[in-house]
Specification:
This protein has about 300 residues and is mainly alpha-helical. Helices cover about 80% and strands about 0% of the residues.
């Protein structure tokens, strides 16, 4: 897969997540945040399971005899790393979902977008991975665009602070996927493991803190199904597949497109207003995505042209 195709998948994931903010906020009108996360990722696990099973089946060689070629076995250490990504995913989902109780869809999209800054910082701190020089101005531009999209002012409510904490977890999740996804060649297995871990952890917390009322779960069912099938099962899998062919900081830039999509769907479906500055913010995020895609390509082409005598 080309890097352009990978980034297109990440952009699509951002759009699906933008709509997911609306589903998350709507679900909070009926059920608790941890129960929603548990049900959402239980659905996502069921959706991904048959595809992960198919991924593990022996592939046919291209020779005349078409001998089955079994996939490389996944080690316990690799499964543990996949589970660690699930813990990061749970941390991001839990703090974001609880934060939505006291902040708007638009603000949640903005503050979650702070992971465009946390991702390269965590990559440096944890793995000494320095991003392409174009990533820093692109991340700053995307962050500024997200700030414009939010209106840029006012104090921070408890929900806002929780959402900032979620951005740290999202940055960690993106970094860990970038670090581990290419080692097994089994992106759907990684998705399945992280979904199952998140559903299990959220289910444990929900069992202790939140009631399970069938009638209320039924009310939230459309939001659960959208978030489980599309915003989780599809979008997170697109993220894992896309990150096989791009860097974590670049992936964070493209995934940050969820902020303008969240604002758009918040306006259309929940009547949340977008200020005039928000349109400038959308443009800034678009420029940032183009910058992180085109600048490395242009610089590499320039170096190759200079190398040719």
């Amino acid at each position: 897969m080309s890097r352009t195709a990978a980034n297109a998948l990440l952009l699509l994931a951002g759009a699906i997540w933008g709509m997911g903010f609306v589903a998350q906020a709507a679900a909070m009108e009926s059920i608790g945040p941890f129960l929603f996360v548990a049900l959402r990722f239980a659905v996502a696990s069921v959706v991904v399971l048959p595809f992960a099973w198919r991924e593990a089946r022996p592939a046919r060689s291209r020779g005349a005899d078409e001998v089955p070629v079994p996939p490389r076995a996944v080690t316990p250490g690799e499964l543990a790393r996949h589970a660690l990504i699930g813990v990061a995913l749970f941390g991001g989902m839990a703090t974001q979902q609880v934060g939505l109780l006291t902040t708007s869809v638009t603000n949640s999209g903005f503050l979650t977008g702070l992971y465009v800054l946390f991702t390269p910082l965590l990559g440096i701190v944890l793995f000494r991975e320095w991003p392409h020089v174009a990533t820093w101005p692109a991340a700053a531009l995307a962050l500024g665009g997200i700030a414009l999209l939010s209106g840029g002012g006012g104090g921070l409510a408890t929900g806002d602070l929780l959402t900032i904490a979620s951005a740290v977890f999202w940055g960690l999740q993106v970094v860990l996927i970038g670090r581990f996804v290419g080692r097994t060649g089994r992106p759907l297995l990684l998705s399945l493991v992280q979904f199952a871990v998140t559903a299990s952890l959220a289910g444990i917390v929900a069992a202790v803190r939140e009631p399970f009322v069938v009638a209320l779960v039924r009310e939230a069912l459309p939001s659960i199904l959208y978030a489980g099938v599309f915003a989780s099962g599809l979008a997170f899998t697109l993220q894992v597949i896309g990150q096989r062919c791009t860097t974590a900081p670049q992936a964070a830039i493209f995934l940050s497109s969820e902020a303008p999509f969240a604002a758009l769907f918040g306006r259309l479906l929940r009547d949340e207003r977008i200020a005039a500055s928000g349109f400038a913010g959308c443009a800034a995020i678009l420029v940032a995505m183009l910058m992180v895609e085109l600048v490395p390509m242009l610089l590499a082409r320039n170096r190759r042209s200079r190398a040719v005598p």
